[in-house]
Design a protein that fits this description.
- It is built from 5 helices and 3 strands; from the N terminus they run αβββαααα.
- By secondary structure, it is of the alpha+beta class.
- It has 2 domains: about 110 residues, no CATH class; about 35 residues, no CATH class.
- A hairpin with a 2-residue loop joins β1 and β2.
- α1 runs parallel beside α3.
Length: about 160
């Protein structure tokens, strides 16, 4: 089910990516990278001596959301492509909004850079923090046991 933000946007994906790059420059990024494959797009940047990566899953072109009408009839190829393109534009607008909001929160002192971008920090092995930590969080909830990296501070004096 598509989200509500930018559902009818006329802003192209290229313009949103360019906007993201400009936003990052404005807030002090020292590098920017963009790439894509069939099922996802990626932006990465360097800021505050950290490497950050966002993966943007692309919709499945063959999804009934794009290939069929609300009544279940097959869409014309152009109509199907237009619906797909609109979904892609919406995703890029949401990513631009997300990054801008995070950077502004850091700028005004509402949160730290690490808090806002922590799960997207690239670790030395190339993984992002969320891919590394998510299995540990799931295991902690399944077992009720905290793995050493997630163990809470016990109150001992430092």
């Amino acid at each position: 089910m598509p989200g509500k933000y930018a559902v009818n946007t006329n802003v192209t994906s290229d313009r949103s990516r360019s906007e993201i790059e400009s936003i990052l420059q404005k807030y002090g990024a020292t590098g920017f990278l963009y790439g894509w494959q069939e099922k996802s797009a990626m932006i990465a940047f360097q800021m505050k001596n950290k490497h950050i990566r966002f993966l943007l899953p692309m919709p499945d072109r063959k999804s009934p959301e794009f290939t069929k009408t609300e009544t279940g009839r097959k869409r014309a190829d152009k109509s199907s492509q237009d619906a797909y393109d609109q979904s892609v534009k919406q995703k890029w607008r949401a990513l631009a909004l997300n990054i801008k909001a995070k950077l502004e929160a850091v700028e005004i002192g509402l949160a730290s850079f690490e808090h806002e971008f922590g799960m997207n920090i690239v670790l030395p092995n190339g993984q992002i923090v969320s891919d590394f930590i998510q299995p540990q969080i799931e295991k902690a909830y399944e077992t009720g046991n905290m793995p050493p990296l997630l163990e809470l501070y016990k109150g001992d004096d430092v």
